[in-house]
């Protein structure tokens, strides 16, 4: 069979009909994206640029701004209180992430193994476990503050029945952050459970059945089949949980307000205090951008590192 080139007239017609992806094409796409671009620009991009400009000034929210350049950044990088806030945030993440992942994975595996005949009951359990996720943080934090009350809380009362003297929880500097971690993990268990349950249900049952025929134990099947094939869902959960962990604020503000003795003062709490307690909006904006840089770097590292442990398909 002989191949012949298209005649010049056909090539010219094709060139004229092929869409030109220049500025006109981009403008056409932008018109269709306007319902999303307008709020994104007004409520995200513009405030971010305004925050960046503010970070280069000293400003108390009342008087005129005073240009200081990178002075706020230099001061914050050398400030021991900033170092402590980042360390407290990392402490929270180190306790929160393993707890919420292990708890969510356990619930997901229990629901995934439930008999199909109990579909209605399983759906009810999913709703119950997911209910804290959609509950206001104010409600959840106040509830846990009451449960962990050292004097009259149910947790210490229950421990007392077994002869155990409960700790001071959110009133004790050593137990304040674990109190916040416990409340945070409880609230987010349902979200992690739903994501991991979807990942578990996407794993073909034939893999498990073939491993069982070969004599693989439950642990080996979990380690060599379930975890590798669940790695995309795990990656998503880890990325989202880390980003949320760096931005922890509501539960800290309500349960401890950064105390006792600054033991739970995290980065976002420091940003809040710099702005509204000390009238240093410029320094608060600079700290916001430092936090953004840390989150961005951590996320990039995770995305680059996923090639080593995330298995797709």
Account of the 3D structure:
By secondary structure, the chain is an all-alpha fold. About 70% of the residues lie in helices and about 0% in strands. It folds into two domains: about 10-55, no CATH class; about 75-310, MetI-like (MetI-like fold). It has 14 helices and two strands. A two-stranded antiparallel ribbon has the order 1-2.
Describe the structure in brief.
The chain is mostly helical and 313 residues long. 71% of the residues lie in helices and 1% in strands. The protein has helices at residues 8-17, 23-54, 71-77, 80-113, 119-130, 137-147, 154-161, 176-201, 205-213, 218-229, 231-246, 250-255, 267-276, 281-309; strands spanning 57-58, 66-67.
CATH superfamily of the largest domain: MetI-like
Please state the CA-atom Rg, rounded to the nearest Å: 26 Å
> What is the residue-averaged pLDDT?
89
How are the strands of the largest sheet arranged? 1-2
| Straight-line distance between termini | 40 Å
């Amino acid at each position: 069979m002989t191949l012949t080139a298209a005649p010049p007239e056909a090539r010219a017609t094709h060139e004229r009909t092929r869409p030109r992806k220049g500025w006109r094409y981009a403008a056409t796409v932008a018109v269709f994206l306007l319902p999303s671009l307008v709020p994104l620009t007004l409520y995200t991009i513009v405030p971010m640029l305004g925050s960046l400009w503010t970070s280069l000034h000293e400003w108390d929210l009342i008087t005129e701004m005073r240009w200081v350049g990178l002075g706020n950044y230099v001061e914050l990088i050398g400030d021991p209180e900033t170092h402590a806030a980042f360390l407290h945030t990392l402490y929270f993440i180190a306790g929160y992430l393993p707890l919420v992942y292990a708890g969510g994975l356990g619930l997901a595996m229990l629901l995934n193994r439930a008999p199909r005949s109990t579909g209605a009951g399983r759906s009810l359990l999913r709703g119950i476990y997911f209910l804290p996720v959609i509950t206001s943080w104010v409600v959840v934090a106040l509830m846990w503050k009451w449960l962990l009350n050292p004097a009259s809380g149910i947790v210490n009362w229950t421990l007392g029945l077994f002869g155990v003297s409960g700790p001071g929880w959110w009133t004790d500097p050593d137990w304040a952050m674990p109190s916040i971690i416990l409340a945070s993990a409880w609230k987010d268990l349902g979200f992690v459970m739903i994501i991991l349950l979807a990942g578990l249900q996407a794993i073909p049952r034939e893999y498990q059945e073939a491993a069982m025929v070969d004599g693989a134990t439950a642990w080996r099947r979990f380690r060599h089949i379930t975890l590798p094939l669940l790695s995309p869902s795990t990656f998503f959960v880890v990325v989202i949980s880390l980003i949320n962990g760096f931005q922890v604020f509501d539960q800290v503000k309500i349960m401890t307000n950064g105390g006792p003795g600054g033991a739970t003062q995290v980065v976002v709490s420091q940003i809040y205090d710099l702005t509204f307690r000390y009238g240093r909006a410029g320094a608060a904006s600079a700290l916001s951008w430092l936090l953004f840089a840390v989150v961005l770097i951590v996320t990039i590292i995770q995305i680059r590192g996923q090639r080593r442990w995330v298995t797709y398909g």
